[in-house]
């Protein structure tokens, strides 16, 4: 059993990698569900117009649903768009709709265009009565204004890396953007976590990629590796995370272990700061 306690500040993580199909959404929803199962209160913000995170969390997100688009473009309070996932009362979702596809361009002419999500979250957290332990932001596959809003609002960056060819390709561009954000928009953003995903232990290549990433980022890479697993890829078509779809599958177990690791690491950091 796992002994974890949630009492502290709200950790805001953005799950980013400008490559598509690397496991951002899968990681966001399954880590969120695993954290909620540990007793954390978690809010997922779906910042991808495709709305895959909303789908996987079983949250309606048709075109007429109030969504993160209304928050970013019209200043609607986040509290008015939040829905609770049927999986857990601890698991909340700010859904995306197809309207968000236009936001990338609409944001260009907005006041404080890089800070709109940050301001919305600050207002939301100020007015909140209950505890909220984690906010996880699922980013679209680009380094446009939506992703920049996520980087500006977050205090941690989680990068999922697929254990395949070209895994590190594009990473220097991502890290360059992060440095720019740290200098100009958000001094507090920290690359805290790298998660190796879609690992196929039968191939030498996957092992080599994992070793190489660990060599580059020894303190950020989680020990837990997420295996490639059919159950993980099936779950969203049932509007579920793998945690509820098949909690005993290898993928679910790995995501639960990764969630525990993320919580433990934060406690280690806190005690370092305190000592
Ligand atoms: P992104 O959000 O980065 O575009 P997704 O999370 O949507 O990536 O994942 C891309 C595809 O890979 C999806 O079809 C997803 O179901 C599948 N996938 C992700 N992680 C795994 C895994 N561990 N095992 C098997 N399939 C996976
Ligand atoms: Mg995605």
Automatic annotation (TrEMBL):
Q: Where is the AAA domain?
A: 11-190
One Pfam match, given by its short name, reads: AAA_31
InterPro entries per record: AAA_dom (IPR025669), DNA_Partitioning_ATPase (IPR050678), P-loop_NTPase (IPR027417)
State the signal peptide span: none
Q: What residue ranges are annotated as transmembrane?
A: none
The entry assigns this protein to a family as follows: Belongs to the ParA family.
Q: What does this protein do?
A: May play a role in septum formation.
Q: What is this protein called?
A: Chromosome partitioning protein
Species of origin: Microbacterium thalassium
């Amino acid at each position: 059993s796992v002994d974890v306690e949630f009492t502290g500040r709200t950790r805001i993580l953005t799950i980013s990698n400008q490559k598509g199909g690397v496991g951002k959404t899968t990681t966001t929803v399954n880590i969120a569900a695993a954290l909620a199962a540990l007793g954390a209160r978690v809010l997922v913000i779906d910042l991808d117009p495709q709305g895959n995170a909303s789908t996987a969390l079983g949250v309606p997100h048709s075109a007429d649903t109030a969504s993160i688009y209304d928050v970013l473009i019209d200043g609607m309070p986040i509290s008015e768009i939040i829905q609770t996932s049927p999986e857990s009362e601890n698991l909340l979702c700010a859904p995306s709709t197809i309207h968000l596809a236009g936001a990338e361009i609409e944001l260009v002419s907005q006041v404080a265009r890089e800070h709109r999500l940050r301001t919305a979250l600050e207002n939301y957290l100020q007015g909140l009565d209950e505890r909220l332990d984690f906010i996880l932001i699922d980013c679209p596959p680009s380094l446009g204004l939506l992703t920049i809003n996520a980087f500006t609002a977050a205090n941690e960056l989680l990068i999922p890396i697929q254990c395949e060819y070209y895994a590190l390709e594009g990473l220097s561009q991502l890290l360059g953007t992060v440095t720019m954000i740290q200098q100009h928009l958000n001094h507090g953003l920290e690359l805290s976590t790298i998660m190796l995903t879609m690992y196929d232990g039968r191939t030498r290549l996957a092992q080599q990629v994992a070793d190489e990433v660990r060599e580059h980022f020894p303190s950020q890479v989680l020990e837990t590796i997420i295996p490639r697993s059919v159950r993980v890829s099936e779950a969203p078509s049932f509007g579920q995370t793998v945690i509820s779809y098949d909690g005993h599958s290898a993928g679910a177990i790995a995501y639960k272990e990764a969630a525990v690791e993320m919580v433990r690491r934060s406690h280690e950091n806190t005690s370092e700061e305190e000592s």
